[in-house]
């Protein structure tokens, strides 16, 4: 009797396992698209974490704000006023965010790039991406990456009155554990660098497979150096 019940239990489990296996196989999403990449340290990538109530004041138009950098999580500006210009959906110019509700305009009320500092592992490959848009015509902004004080121009984005999205890769140089991503205005259709160049959805990814390979190589190297010092090899 018990043997029979166990037999049926085994058959039921086998059936469920095969069913689960089938469902699992069918539910696989675009596996190759993920390419071993994970999000790397960028905070407030979408400019959605902004404290307008405590740090903002109206820039003189509906849903456009000058916000002290203390109120824009993780982002800073070299603008002497320390203000970052935050735009929101529902603004008087009818310009929508690329994603979410908020986006920023470069140079706010004075000259000054917008940047974020991140910790990096030398030798790793990072993939960056961002969205850029002109305000009233063709605007151009530049992405610079490097150690603070030693930035390298990486990419120039030129867009009219629709959002463009761009991506590329960056290899962290030897010794660079502190990396700055800076967005600087190059030109605007208005001719005034404080009017134009919108930015949104800034992301950074690390290729974890390459990072592991690099980490393994580095570990092997340390072992070899230690072994040679100890006269083991
Ligand atoms: Ca956004
Ligand atoms: Ca402005």
What is the CATH architecture assignment? Sandwich
CATH H level: which superfamily? Galactose-binding domain-like
Strand percentage lies at 35-45%
Morphology call: globular
Number of domains: 1
Query: Ends: how far apart?
Result: 66 Å
Write the layout of secondary structure elements.
Blueprint: H1 2-26, H2 31-34, E1 37-39, H3 52-55, E2 56-61, E3 64-68, E4 76-77, E5 83-88, E6 102-105, E7 114-119, E8 125-133, E9 139-147, E10 150-159, E11 164-171, E12 178-187, E13 198-207, H4 208-229
Antiparallel strand pairs: 1-13, 2-3, 3-5, 4-7, 5-6, 6-13, 7-12, 8-11, 8-13, 9-10, 9-12
The protein binds calcium ion (2 copies).
How would you describe this protein?
This protein is 24% helix and 38% strand. The strands form 2 sheets. Strands 1, 2, 3, 5, 6, 8, 11 and 13 form an 8-stranded antiparallel β-sheet that branches. The longest helix has 25 residues, at 2-26. Residues 13-25 have low confidence and may be disordered. The chain has helices spanning 2-26, 31-34, 52-55, 208-229; strands at residues 37-39, 56-61, 64-68, 76-77, 83-88, 102-105, 114-119, 125-133, 139-147, 150-159, 164-171, 178-187, 198-207. The chain has 4 helices and 13 strands. Strand 9 (139-147) and strand 10 form a beta hairpin. It has a single domain, classed as Galactose-binding domain-like (Jelly Rolls, Sandwich), CATH 2.60.120. By secondary structure, it is of the alpha+beta class.
């Amino acid at each position: 009797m018990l043997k029979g019940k166990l037999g049926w239990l085994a058959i039921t489990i086998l059936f469920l396992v095969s069913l689960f296996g089938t469902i699992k196989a069918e539910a696989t999403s675009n596996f190759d698209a993920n390419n071993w990449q994970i999000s790397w340290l960028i905070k407030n990538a979408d400019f959605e974490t902004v404290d307008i109530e405590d740090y903002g004041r109206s820039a003189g138009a509906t849903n456009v704000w000058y916000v002290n950098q203390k109120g824009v999580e993780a982002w800073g500006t070299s603008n002497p006023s320390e203000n970052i210009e935050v735009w929101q959906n529902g603004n008087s110019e009818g310009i929508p965010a690329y994603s979410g509700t908020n986006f920023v305009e470069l140079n706010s009320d004075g000259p000054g790039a917008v940047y974020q500092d991140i910790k990096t592992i030398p030798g790793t490959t990072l993939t960056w991406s961002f969205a850029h848009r002109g305000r009233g015509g063709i605007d151009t902004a530049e992405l610079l990456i490097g150690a603070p004080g030693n930035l390298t121009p990486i990419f120039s984005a030129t867009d009219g009155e629709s959002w463009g999205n761009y991506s590329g890769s960056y290899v962290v140089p030897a010794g660079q554990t502190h990396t700055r991503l800076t967005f600087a205005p190059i030109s605007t259709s208005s001719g005034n660098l404080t009017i134009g160049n919108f930015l949104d959805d800034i992301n950074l990814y690390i290729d974890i497979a390459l990072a592991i390979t690099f980490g393994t190589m580095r570990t092997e190297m340390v072992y070899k150096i230690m072994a040679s010092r100890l006269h083991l090899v």
